[in-house]
Amino acid sequence: MRKRGDVYRRLARHLDDLPAGFPPTKSGVELRILRTLFNEDEAKLALRLSVLPESPESVARRAGLSASEAARKLEAMARKGLIYRLEDEKSGLRYSANQFVIGIWEFQVNRLRPELIRDMEEYLPTLITDSPWKKTPQLRTVPVMESLPVRHEILAHENAEDMLRGQDRFLAAPCICRRERTMMGQGCDKPEEACLIMGRAVDYYDRNGMGRVISREEALAMIRRAGEAELVLQPSNAKKIANICMCCGCCGVLRTIKSHPRPAEFVSSPFRATLRQDACSDCGTCLERCPMGALTRRNGQGIELDSVRCIGCGLCVLTCPTRSLTLVRKPEAEQRDVPPTLRHTYVTMARRRGGLKFIKLVRSLFRSALRV
Ligand code: SF4
Ligand code: SF4
Ligand code: SF4
Questions:
Q1: I need a surface site. Which of 134, 321, 343, 357 has the fewest CB within 10 A?
Q2: pLDDT, tens digit, 9 for 90 and up, residues 58-88
Q3: Which of these, 218, 233, 117, 108, lies nearest to 170 by C-alpha position?
Q4: What's the N-to-C CA distance of the chain in angstroms?
Q5: Does any ligand 1 atom lie closer than 6 A to the CB of residue 15?
Q6: Which residues constitute the domain of residue 99?
Q7: Probe ligand 3: pick from 289, 301, 320, 323, max atoms within 8 Å of CB?
Q8: What's the 30 CA to ligand 2 centre distance in angstroms?
Q9: What band does 363 get if pLDDT is binned at 50, 70 and 90?
Q10: Which residues on adjacent β-strands are paired with residue 246?
Q11: How many other β-carbons are positioned within 10 Å of the β-carbon of residue 283?
Q12: What is the complex's ipTM, to 2 decimals?
């Protein structure tokens, strides 16, 4: 007979085989998180899903369930954010595996508990550092609108407003990082509604009660407020985006990369700040604005910018009274390629994690396609 923990270990490996990974720890905190989120039945059913969306009938055959039982269980799991649901008129409801981050974790925004938050805090450094994030981040950083350098040099996928063109549905969702920090008594004064969701993902969020559908004008207003509210714009790492996060110091990703000596290596950002020390009045405003601690005051010698800490968010540029800070494009060799779609991003992530992970991803897609 299998030990109770076995299904969770298998689920952990299953999640680790997905492009974004779910790296193991010595402490086993990741298994504790899975036990809190999934009951054993749910864990077993999650093991039956791949990244390819399937109908309940198709999953039922593999899971030894009736179609109606599979439909009921899959929908209940989707409502808990444990698996993903796609719906369209042609194919009806279909379900697929969720990656842990960005995915299962963010979808727990309405199910947070202090123990779960503490476990996630413990897991976060491993999750960001040992996962494929450094090689292929899931989010990019783009400058807040007013800090953009000369407008005609900016590509459409580098301009948050341009990224909204071609999108027809928008939803404002609460930021899980901010909610976590608030629940732990470490919250900030930033607006909680800080995740802008677009396109087909709107259905999932809306059906799960994770936000409110908004108009294009409201979506644009959210983006335009980011600079003033000291929020870093982080869209999906693709030219066709699915979301824009507006992150502050509560952000688990930003907090983790800030603790590294070279945060710039963890982000995909085409720009970085430059400082004209001769023009700087030493007012100190930028020291407060920079989310990465890239700007510091040297002993009696004015302000210094450490470019390996700069993620090109533009927040310092916006409020520098002497225009000593500007954003410049990085040399081409230092700019990362931006994949055309998120599907390309995930395939790239799997490929960069090494042959075995890539083969497992392809095999899982193939198996699902054959419905075995
Ligand atoms: S990534 Fe940023 S916006 Fe998204 S949940 Fe975390 S802090 Fe909030
Ligand atoms: S120096 Fe800091 S605030 Fe300025 S662009 Fe870089 S990371 Fe952003
Ligand atoms: S905000 Fe501008 S003027 Fe003030 S210290 Fe920073 S660089 Fe200097």
A1: 321
A2: 999 989 999 999 999 999 999 999 999 998 8
A3: 218
A4: 25
A5: no
A6: 6-129+354-370
A7: 320
A8: 33
A9: low
A10: 233
A11: 13
A12: 0.90
